[in-house]
Amino acid sequence: MSQTPRQPVGRSAPTSADVARLAGVSRATVSYVLNNTAAVRISEPTRLRVRAAAEELGYVPHAAARSLRAGHTRTVVMPSARLPGGPLPVRFYDEFQSELRRLEYTVVEYGGVGLDGDEAARAWAELRPVAVVCPGATQPSAYGVSLLRRSGARAVVTLGPHPTRGAHFLALDERRIGAAAVGHLIHRGRRAIGVVVPREPGPKLCAELRLEGARAAAEGSGARTVPLPMAYEEESAAALAARWRATGLDAVFAFDDAYAMLLMRALQDEGVDVPRETAVVGAGDLLLGRLLRPRLSTVRVDTVSGRRLAELVDRVVREPAAEPEHHDLMAARAVHRESS
Amino acid sequence: MSQTPRQPVGRSAPTSADVARLAGVSRATVSYVLNNTAAVRISEPTRLRVRAAAEELGYVPHAAARSLRAGHTRTVVMPSARLPGGPLPVRFYDEFQSELRRLEYTVVEYGGVGLDGDEAARAWAELRPVAVVCPGATQPSAYGVSLLRRSGARAVVTLGPHPTRGAHFLALDERRIGAAAVGHLIHRGRRAIGVVVPREPGPKLCAELRLEGARAAAEGSGARTVPLPMAYEEESAAALAARWRATGLDAVFAFDDAYAMLLMRALQDEGVDVPRETAVVGAGDLLLGRLLRPRLSTVRVDTVSGRRLAELVDRVVREPAAEPEHHDLMAARAVHRESS
């Protein structure tokens, strides 16, 4: 607490030299002890003396210095991806991070917000990560991947709808969600199918892919699909419901369960009978979707587990593959309840 | 792509020396150009030549080297805090990060999962951040704060129910949510008030504080509160509803809107009249809470904006305060709809 904050940290922070002086050992010994270097044998009393001195001075090793010495880091960079509408659940991220920590990597979330693919790749490269994992909307280009590889990243793993040259690719294809929903509605005998497209920017990419999948599923089936822009607001849902009968639609895939619950309520308030007049299907299998009457039909999405992804990252870091690996890690299937 | 991944990065990654050689300038010039050092005048043709060489070689500056040269970083560390039930909305984090990026800080999210307060503080200190912001369940102790300060952090900002010595403190007091809910129910004439306590580990800290606030609000009012453990599952809600009449309760504060929707549905399925027999209040003002009938009463929570927090961090970094600042940044008020 005693430092003058105006001073640069390099001077104000205690150094390994201070620890070495206090413990009466060499700086190398301090570094061996505090970085748990297994290669070097150091007596337990010395270890304890060094740890006590570091404790007393409040010294911690400088990650930057360590990574410069080592020539590489154990850092895995992942863009912050908290945008809603993505296929990966919260627990995926926690599981992924805990598992990588168990494997002695440091997970750093960085630069998912407001950077485009190549800006982000450059920012990540500056941290000299050993691996980069891109689950979000921010995906590096082939150039970004080569930049990362040349700056020392042993693995670049992208999760999304499209592969990137030079990167390992885990397919999370949102199109399947739209295809499963519309396939279910056609199977239930519906022919004029609305597809809700959220007006919010967050789910934009998701929404386009789900719509694409919905259209593909309808193709050649005799059914037609109609995109329906809608905001996640009662007013927007009410406006859409008010002109529902004019659209002549007999079904709707409402992007996800939240939009579906909102639209189904608005349709019921307009006197539209669900499912007799209009079938409604969401996606995500939210527990709350079972609380409305009729119970909401949905699409259940199964994705890669955080643990499995962490193991893949560790494997490709330890044994870099000649060729990038491609795995398909998302399954989507309709769950029929009462609303369709 | 040409590097042999087995080689340490230090050798395989292009260095500023390579860029200097290719551009025919000194390493210092490369560093001035690529780190946009304003102090030094360098001709535009030279800048362009250096950038072109860096581009060609795929060279990016090494953040670690730069921070060692500078003696400090512009890194703001924040633990990943994606656990549900917290008072801060997703858009808070995005706003906070975008604003700090605009102020030319680098936000790194790190170590919120599976590290206790002091382990986390040590891990953060290794990154030599200029500031640390702790919004989640992971809060450093007074020792952790001093460790961070001594390693050069100019500001440690904690957000939560309790202050930590030496750290700036933004009060986000979950107790107010419980107090607002129970105050409302008492105002509506209820006297036997259940308080749902989720069985899930995620919301544990939140739940304890909301219960504490609920109890405090009931004290001396003649009303009593009864904690009701419940899991976020239909079975658990049904079991609680099945023994509802035996409890003699005439109201329930159900932790948040999601638990409230689940429990209200289960009570209705048991034939319990909401609100006549039992009033139900949630928290969070979810749009979905307005979709059930009766419409769910709730507690609206207003917290600090990401922008305001970013500005506070920047100010205390630029002008370190003699004394840690305390601000109160959460308001909670009941919103009466139909379920209470």
UniProtKB/TrEMBL annotation, chains A, B:
HTH lacI-type domain residues: 14-70
Q: Name one GO molecular function term.
A: DNA-binding transcription factor activity
Give a yes or no for keyword Hydrolase in this entry. no
List the CDD domains: HTH_LacI
For this protein, the record's PROSITE patterns field holds: HTH_LACI_2
Q: Which Gene3D superfamilies match?
A: 3.40.50.2300, lambda repressor-like DNA-binding domains
Superkingdom of the source?
A: Bacteria
Keyword tags: DNA-binding, Transcription, Transcription regulation
Designated name of the protein: LacI family DNA-binding transcriptional regulator
Species, as recorded: Streptomyces genisteinicus
